[in-house]
Amino acid sequence: MVTFTIPQPTYEAPDRGPAQGSAGLRAIETVSVIGLGYVGLPTAALLASRGLKVIGVDLKQDAVARINEGRAHIAETDLDMILDAVVKGGKLQARTSPLPADAFLIAVPTPITADKKADMRAVEAALASIAPVLKRGDLIVIESTSPVGTTERAAAQLRSLRPDLRFPDAAPEQADVFMAYCPERILPGQTLRELVDNARIIGGLDHASALRAREVYAHFARGKMMLATSREAECAKLAENAFRDVNIAFANELATLCEGMGVDPWAVIRMANLHPRVNILSPGPGVGGHCIPIDPWFLHHAMPEQTPLIAAARGVNDGKPLRVANRVQRLASRFKEPVIAVLGLAYKPNVDDLRESPAVEIARTLADRGVGRLLIAEPNIARLPHELAGRPDVQLVEGSVAVAEADIVTILVAHSRFRNLDRAALASRVVVDTVGLLKAEQA
Ligand SMILES: NC(=O)c1ccc[n+]([C@@H]2O[C@H](COP(=O)([O-])OP(=O)(O)OC[C@H]3O[C@@H](n4cnc5c(N)ncnc54)[C@H](O)[C@@H]3O)[C@@H](O)[C@H]2O)c1
Known about the structure:
This is UDP-N-acetyl-D-mannosamine dehydrogenase. This protein is an alpha/beta fold. Helices cover about 40% and strands about 15% of the residues. Bound molecules: nicotinamide-adenine-dinucleotide. Nicotinamide-adenine-dinucleotide (NAD) binds next to helix 4.
């Protein structure tokens, strides 16, 4: 059994007394986590490590089978160790359909559709799947990043499926169940530590629901827990990622401007950041991952006319991969049979995650255009993604091999392992350093 020594949480919001509803407060002993991915599985494992009985639910049969063997189907620091202990200790079991529980945490994907609208089908399906097993006194928490108003719509959906239960949006004092929205803000690779240490926003459909949800997180969280309304919590999560996107867009636009004016953007940013109230972020080849390129759209679509800045930032960041590809193509036209090293495919340093990665988009564009032979170095993957696999002019190689054979070296991700690359070899190549890897070293 894992021993996790976690101090008591510090609470920011004062208690305003016990729940007012008629639901009755029994102890939360069984928690069901719906969606066992990057967010859900570590959360389920942590809750189980604190002695709760956890029922994890996922549609993927192979993931469920693996979890029941005590092995994670995702790579996350220390997760296998905890999972092994809680599965062997009988505290966590995974299934493909829900069972009754005292609390349900929903952590299923919320991607965007082709027209950049929130695709809420997984959340709706998860709610539909728990509806038959819901009972009086249960708590439902949505963790999936969602448009503002989602928790209210979830209550309406559940009400239509379970007209016998009263939900807190309509009449909080008489509610039979509790409902809250609690966003997640973990850093992949550091998920377990961040689940424990990060501050949390706990947005209840009513105050009693927020208090009830806080009870669940108090089992493992030691960061501050701020109580809020579900709308505030939904909006705060989206605001965080829109803030990042807008600030990265500024850095990217500034870098383009500097390059056009013949000024070194890295030197400009380093100097500007000496101002005590300026903190320009690092430019790059675009923005990737499954959060920042997606979540700002949820805010934009709420009020498109009023959010030109958010939309413009999306445009700047989404346009960056094409700019980089065009630049490499221009440089390649100097060579008869250009060989191009592409250093990094992941969406950020030191992870194997290629979701929405601008580096993949750049490599694919170069390959589609037949710009030259591509030697791709991505130390965190064993095979090329489907966008690049099976193409005769694209190979996955070691970073040192790519640099040694290339005419042009394109640095797209600042993986630590690229810091050891042969500087003399790099100095004799045409280098497009989109992440300032070499500049950072010089600085
Ligand atoms: N990964 C992160 O770093 C992160 C950080 C903050 C917020 N989020 C948000 O959390 C949510 C989950 O993200 P994730 O990265 O864990 O996704 P994920 O794709 O890793 O995992 C989601 C899991 O849900 C399962 N699933 C889908 N529909 C289901 C259903 N109806 N019933 C049961 N299981 C179902 C999928 O099979 C998958 O295993 C998203 O809204 C995401 O935006 C993610």
